[in-house]
Design goal:
six-stranded antiparallel β-sheet, binds aspartic acid, about 450 residues, 14 helices, binds magnesium ion, about 40% helix, single chain, eight-stranded mixed β-sheet, alpha/beta
């Protein structure tokens, strides 16, 4: 069994859907499970519709539903070549859009919001299933809501998922091609829920993991993880091989390529993940697996901006225990993840990328000492394997950025990452300068 996940742009137009056929046909002799995202843009549109309903702006919601409906109408007219295919597809979209319309008739809460958000993947998979049928390719549509389940901590219920998908698949012993929805799931109460934005990768990884798949293929429109960001740096190259740990570090930064959480199920069940390019079928992409360390010690440079740095300085920290715990508890209370940390004897600096509760957090931190905040920072991170050779990496890195003001440096947190915090206006220069020095 292989799991193949196609993202929103890969199903984003009738032409792109058509281009998936050769990929799927080439693997037809083996069993494989195809996980699809919603057509690109749809989840954003559904999100806007749900927000309008929540604000009781029903006219706006219904108008947006109409616009989205007409997009789908055009989409299926182009995609389907037979009358029967088109008629079935019309029934499919009518069903989902009627539901979207009707959801506005009653009380609209976060439960209904998540039902709205689920329609994108339900639409794309059902349409693709009907499309394959038109093309004479037999497939089985498996409803993700029957097996994708979260537990009371809102973490995937691995045992449940493993058991239920196993039962589902065993009902079709002679079929080879299965299709299911990415992103959507049920929570511990059985309500429709989702794995958060970009979560289709996570679905693919979870399913590939519990099925002990031969491989999880994530098909996107870039030929794998690059050793630097091609939008800002010239002569970047796709990385052929990454370990799970390196991929986990990179995924946080290149979040658009691979959902960061999706590395963990694959790692736990030791199923390799391959990033592949729907636009360039012969490109080898990036293989993420256990023990496939890259041959180079420094593998990639990645960056993320929109980072806020906070420094808390307090003489009470000196020789005290429990100080950091109390600081961290403030962030915990406001559900704000901390990314980077550096400490000295009398101060601690840390970074966050969610600033919804920044004011409240600062107010509480003021209790511990003086608090300084730097906005518009960027984390530039160097990912590699620093286990065998601990000499010199930090020197090379700091030499490459000697003309750039560095606010924080973090090294040793893992053996796969060196992170620098610089003002966002220096991000690109830091990436380029490191690229020239390291590659
Ligand atoms: N459709 C969802 C989103 O746009 C999930 C995904 O594409 O992975 O976030
Ligand atoms: Mg994605």
């Amino acid at each position: 069994m292989k799991v193949l996940k196609f993202g929103g742009t890969s199903v984003g137009s009738p032409e792109r859907m058509e281009q998936l056929l050769p990929i799927i046909k080439s693997q037809q002799s083996d069993k494989h499970l195809v996980v699809l995202s919603a057509v690109s843009g749809t989840t954003n549109d559904l999100f806007a519709i749900a927000q309008s309903y929540l604000k009781e702006e029903k006219d706006k919601a219904r108008n947006d539903i109409k616009i989205l409906y007409s997009k789908y109408k055009t989409f299926i007219k182009q995609l389907f070549k037979t009358e029967e295919g088109l008629r079935t597809a019309e029934e499919v979209i009518d069903h989902h859009f009627n539901l979207l319309d009707e959801l506005g008739n009653d009380l609209f809460t976060s439960i209904e919001e998540r039902i709205v958000l689920a329609q994108g993947e339900l639409l794309s998979t059902t349409l693709f299933h009907v499309y394959l049928k038109e093309k004479g390719i037999p497939s089985v549509l498996l409803p993700a809501l029957d097996f994708m389940r979260m537990d009371e901590e809102n973490e995937p219920n691995i045992e449940y998922i493993q058991k239920q998908i196993g039962i589902k698949l065993s009902e079709y012993p002679s079929d080879n091609l299965f299709i299911t929805q990415g992103y959507i799931c049920r929570n511990t109460f059985g309500e429709i829920d989702n794995l958060r934005r970009g979560g289709s990768d996570y679905t693919a990884s979870l399913l590939g993991a519990v099925l002990g798949a031969e491989e999880i293929q994530i098909w996107t429109d870039i030929d794998g993880f690059h050793n630097n960001d091609p939008r800002y740096v010239q002569n970047t190259k796709p990385i052929a091989k990454l370990s799970f740990d390196e991929a986990a570090e990179l995924a946080y930064f290149g979040a658009k390529i691979l959902h960061p959480q999706s590395v963990f199920p694959a790692k736990r069940f030791n199923v390799s993940v391959r990033l592949l390019d729907t636009m360039e079928l012969s490109a080898p992409g990036t293989l993420i697996s256990q023990g496939t360390e890259s041959d180079d010690q420094i593998v990639a440079i990645a960056a993320k901006d929109g980072i806020t740095a906070i420094r808390i300085q307090s003489s009470r920290m000196l020789l005290a225990y429990g100080f950091l715990r109390r600081v961290f508890e403030v962030f915990e209370r406001y559900k704000t993840p901390i990314d980077m940390i550096t400490t000295s004897e009398v101060a601690v600096s840390l970074t966050i990328d969610q600033t919804t509760y920044l004011e409240e957090i600062i107010q509480e931190l003021n209790y511990f000492g003086s608090v300084e905040v730097d906005h518009d920072q960027a984390i530039v991170c160097i990912v590699g394997d620093f286990r065998s050779n601990k000499h010199g990496h930090a020197t090379i890195v700091s030499e490459a950025v000697k003309h750039i003001p560095v606010r924080m440096i973090s090294y040793g947190g893992s053996e796969h990452n060196i992170s620098l915090l610089v003002p966002a206006s220096y991000k690109i220069e830091a990436m380029r300068s490191l690229h020239n020095r390291l590659f």
